[in-house]
Prior knowledge:
By secondary structure, the chain is of the alpha/beta class. The protein is built from 31 helices and 34 strands. The strands form 11 sheets. It has a 6-stranded mixed beta sheet with strand order 11-9-10-7-6-15, sandwiched between helices. A 4-stranded parallel beta sheet has the order 1-24-25-17, with helices on one face. Strands 5-4-16-18 form a 4-stranded antiparallel beta sheet, with no helix packed on it. The longest helix is centred in the last third of the chain and has 31 residues, at 719-749. The model has no long low-confidence stretch (mean pLDDT 91). The structure holds one RNA strand.
Amino acid sequence: xxxxxxxxxxxxxxxxxxxxxxxxxxxxxxxxxxxxxxxxxxxxxxxxxxxxxxxxxxxxxxxxxxxxxxxxxxxxxxxxxxxxxxxxxxxxxxxxxxxxxxxxxxxxxxxxxxxxxxxxxxxxxxxxxxxxxxxxxxxxxxxxxxxxxxxxxxxxxxxxxxxxxxxxxxxxxxxxxxxxxxxxxxxxxxxxxxxxxxxxxxxxxxxxxxxxxxxxxxxxxxxxxxxxxxxxxxxxxxxxxxxxxxxxxxxxxxxxxxxxxxxxxxxxxxxxxxxxxxxxxxxxxxxxxxxxxxxxxxxxxxxxxxxxxxxxxxxxxxxxxxxxxxxxxxxxxxxxxxxxxxxxxxxxxxxxxxxxxxxxxxxxxxxxxxxxxxxxxxxxxxxxxxxxxxxxxxxxxxxxxxxxxxxxxxxxxxxxxxxxxxxxxxxxxxxxxxxxxxxxxxxxxxxxxxxxxxxxxxxxxxxxxxxxxxxxxxxxxxxxxxxxxxxxxxxxxxxxxxxxxxxxxxxxxxxxxxxxxxxxxxxxxxxxxxxxxxxxxxxxxxxxxxxxxxxxxxxxxxxxxxxxxxxxxxxxxxxxxxxxxxxxxxxxxxxxxxxxxxxxxxxxxxxxxxxxxxxxxxxxxxxxxxxxxxxxxxxxxxxxxxxxxxxxxxxxxxxxxxxxxxxxxxxxxxxxxxxxxxxxxxxxxxxxxxxxxxxxxxxxxxxxxxxxxxxxxxxxxxxxxxxxxxxxxxxxxxxxxxxxxxxxxxxxxxxxxxxxxxxxxxxxxxxxxxxxxxxxxxxxxxxxxxxxxxxxxxxxxxxxxxxxxxxxxxxxxxxxxxxxxxxxxxxxxxxxxxxxxxxxxxxxxxxxxxxxxxxxxxxxxxxxxxxxxxxxxxxxxxxxxxxxxxxxxxxxxxxxxxxxxxxxxxxxxxxxxxxxxxxxxxxxxxxxxxxxxxxxxxxxxx
RNA sequence: GGGCCCUUAGCUCAGUUGGUUAGAGCAUCGUGUUGAUAACGCGGGGGUCGGUGGUUCGAGUCCACUAGGGCCCA
Length: 942
């Protein structure tokens, strides 16, 4: 019988599952979108809309995606989904970056393992391309699985022939501006392999070296400046005697104190005071006596003489000089060391390096004749070069001590021999010569930075970077289109490059490695000064890969019809201030005289829950597919969008599980709404907004505020605020704890067509439609799922939510007066009633709140009481009690409340307590209101 | 070592121009309901705002220093 009565209730009905089961169900939805060509439909819908160009920074295709990729791509996808719903014409062309050392290095190792060593450049490049493509494809699938909607079939790729051609054309414009020049710069060099090495190709191993102390005599002026009366030397210490022929200077620290020490066996020598005793011992200095001390600055620009070549070796200041070892006076050979190089550049010293590719001293008129032709390769035994140099300095007395030491030294990963640091001709872009640095800094003024401090960061990077070294001695990259004659003289020309770019556009840059210079230049008019093509060889250097991705704005935005330049938005991790943001800025400023972006948005890095960085062994560093496999894409996305990405973004299973709880609440909120609309057809059942019940007016007023605040947060790209600050509390407080809780009684117990019920259903259907769209960019799968169920009670719809418009506020929702009343009444409940109700519950006097009644007493002169009186008939519903009596007492100074168990009998249908039940016959005894509802139900079913 | 940035309850976030007992959601504990039920309601506990020292009648909110953390350089 009770069951029969239950059947007369309008209980919620829906097939929308309570649990998302995202891991299993999301893929089908993604497939459905693809079948519908959802991306294409969106573009078609918005074709005439305002333009918004988000230019994708290309991920490097060398492995699985991780959460950092998810963070970046989810933010982009969320922004675009929002913009699309707002009607923007916003094509999204995803990009991929593939040239560069990480792939070449990995592929080279794999090729090595086959035992062959004679791979041609083309073979290496083809293996790299294959490797890159494999990961491009798997990354693409992983992004799709995240729910990222994009023009996946028209991606841009830095190794596409057209892309490479544009890159070369861009480079041609640099050459044309006459800012591309050649200069020496030291690189790691493997003598047996006759090749330059990258940092990653170096292994540190222990090596035995001869360390030596060498005197460099001071000039007469120098002695005078240091108030020394007798001849004196600066004393240097080095472990690479073979670099002495390239010694061009001595570096000292300006802030360190130095001592001039007079000795009976080595004359006067100058060393850092802190190292005085150590040097005296190591060099057996006899009768040492400090005759003067001074700071390093005192020696600036003073002249020392090279120990065995007739040239000056000036004393320079350098902050990197320490007193940890040696003498505090550092042998400086700009052609053989990174620090030395920078010191040399800063002081206008030649980057001198008298070595050929085989590591032998060349005859340049400066290297002593007895050294010419000797090899510097120090493999197992002392090199010829070291022995030769030691002999010279021992003979002329400048060597005052030597000792064999074992230390960690870089070795070639392939030949296992010690590498040398050797200056080679490199290509550079001059950044000041054409005024480009100033232009770049000016261009930044027109860029909007999110967060604002990004400007400081990129500005500092732009201000401080030296001329851009753009050549790499690598194979897997875009070749530097330069030619060389027999003497190594370089020929480069903008028009020639453009002509080659045309060929590259068709055949790719592989032709550079397949064809001879003559073949490459066939049909191309050469500048008059060039030799004939049979005398030229094409260069083997490739361009810095930052030129690859850094020219994407030209290769993509400027080349494609549906895009435009500059971009409205670039969005990447904060490391890109010195990476892609900067390389793009330079290429753009040089070639196009303006920044390629209007807004620059950066996010932080994914870190562990304690804020420290993720290392490979951390569980949280597992690949993205594994995260999606355990939580589903929407939960991963919601995790991302619930965090303030401007700072670092912490992650742990605990944190994601936490988000998962919020997700469940949101999902159930939507489910509750769908299920209570099962018999509601807006076209026939909707109640005019003006006629809505007070509580429904209140909730629409809340909804209006929600839409305004959420839209504002989205526009500011502050998704964590949209969700955490606004949507999450709205679902929990306004809906779950208040509105839905109140509504259950009328939705379930009223007659289906009761105006009160239809009023609430009208409001619910509006809320559902709005709320679902508000969360659609954040959790696209779930929003689309709910949208489908609301339409046809099944999984899919041909009108996905992504095709709908962003919700606007209907001014009729704004009912501030009613809303203020309802809000005040609910506050009254929580502040004045809930404590007593809770007490009754604790005392087991009542169970659910409908078991209780309240009596409120006060004076009508009190506006709060007056309001209670005004809403007296609504109060049982608003407070979810069976009876509320508002009693006027003119003498009352305060509002008093008495709560007790409700009177009368409990209606078995509505569970409300009423004075008496009414006999209905068929259904037994129920409350009068239920009796009336049952009467209507039986009439409509007849 | 340098540049930029971060530090509020167990977790993720709010805290307007400095001003009453620092808020929310989740988690936790207790409890109600069994007509949103692997769901929902009600209630409790839990931060003195990384630390120290200043400015001020008054500071999470301004200044200095310091500790820890992140990105990028060296």
